[in-house]
Write a structure and sequence with these properties.
Oligomer: heterodimer
Largest sheet of chain B: none
Structural class of chain B: mainly alpha
Number of domains of chain A: 2
Helix content of chain B: over 70%
Distance between the termini of chain B: 31 Å
Number of strands of chain B: 0
Helix content of chain A: over 70%
Order of helices and strands of chain B: HHHHHHHHH
Order of helices and strands of chain A: HHHHHHHHHHHHH
CATH class of the largest domain in chain A: Mainly Alpha
Number of helices of chain B: 9
Structural class of chain A: mainly alpha
Number of domains of chain B: 2
Largest interface: A-B, 50 and 53 residues
Radius of gyration of chain A: 31 Å
CATH superfamily of the largest domain in chain A: Tetratricopeptide repeat domain
Largest sheet of chain A: none
Shape of chain B: globular
CATH topology of the largest domain in chain A: Serine Threonine Protein Phosphatase 5, Tetratricopeptide repeat
Distance between the termini of chain A: 66 Å
Chain lengths: 240, 193
Amino acid sequence: MNEERYILFDQYLEGELAVEEKNDFEKQLTEDAQFASEFETFKSVQLQLQNKFGFEEEREAFKENLNQIAEEYFNKKPKVIGLKPWYFAAAASVAVLFGLFFFNYNQYPAFADYNHPEQASFAERGSEDGPLKNAEKEFNAKRYSLAIPHFEAVLAKGKTPEIQFYYGVSLLEESHYLKAEAVFDELKTGNSVYKEKATWYLALSKLKQRDYEGCKKILQGISEDYEDYDEVQLLLDELD
Amino acid sequence: MEKIKIHHDQMYIDGLAANDSVIIESIYKKFVPKVVFFVLNNSGDRDQAQDIVQEVMILLYNQAKAGTLKLTCPFDAYFFLLCKRKWLNEFKKISNKGVTIHEDVVSINESALELIAQTEEFDEKQQLFDTMFQKLGDKCQELLKLSFSVKSMEEVAEKLNVTYGYVRKKKSLCIGQLTQWIQEAKNFNSLKK
């Protein structure tokens, strides 16, 4: 460590150098890039120390206050104790009124309207009670959360676009968007028969997340040769 | 110098810096639900959402206190994107899988992105600094802590029961040690790039 250099930095910042030394120092700053860069770091370390310890108490107070507000927000104790039953009736009727009021104005298409995954049938290739058979059973019974681990077991042994696709659909049904979209994206960039289907489901994922713009963009990328293009067109029209 | 136009949402930043409960509560009410929704929809739970929000709030507090946070865009977009990116980073760490993330930054304007880059840089610098500070010996840590919370170095010397000359020198050297480590980390990073 260049001890003298750091002592000099400190003296300069404290204004303790004689005129001549100060001039030398400033000259070196303009001529020696390494020196200047180190001086900059030294100054920024000082600044950070200032920030760290200059108002530590205030920061602690802030954190405590923040914590309290956050707890209240996230783990709200139900405040319904003491509310009279007729309050609920009133609240319910207001809710119904609002519901009726907005019902006709809800112009956005819903995921549920387009969500009808086809039945899977990988049976002939799976042994009687293997993970593949189980995955198919759970998937067709719409027990997606149970199907997912079976799919994962199958995929761990070897990937096929077909299994990947049904796995992606299960993930989407369970709202694991990030994972589902990763699966569909992989299929979309591939060349299997599931390419367009995966793109369609990618759009549905956006729809389910109410990202209508994103949904539209993806739909526009689907080729008109896609077997279920009618649905694509329908959804596009609804989004417009 | 270019004149920067401060967005009127700066009041949220100032409110955080002033530890103003009304402002903090209004941030939770207005802007946090969107973050929670996002985290829940991306393999996270409520606790994780709460942590992310708190981390970002403390980050903003620190940056505001350092006087380097001037909001030039709506708070909404800025705050949401910061939380979102923090969560995605966190998620990558815990899931440890190469999940591809597709970011739609279409609706975000440039000043928001620039501001986010600044805040993230502030965050990185602070984390680097904290790591290095923890590497220092106990003596250095204590001396620096005192030097930057007590008014004068004379007082620091008195508290530590050493001479003024000694604390001054020691302080320079402790800061010097940090400087050296951080400088090395910087050089290393620029090599990586």
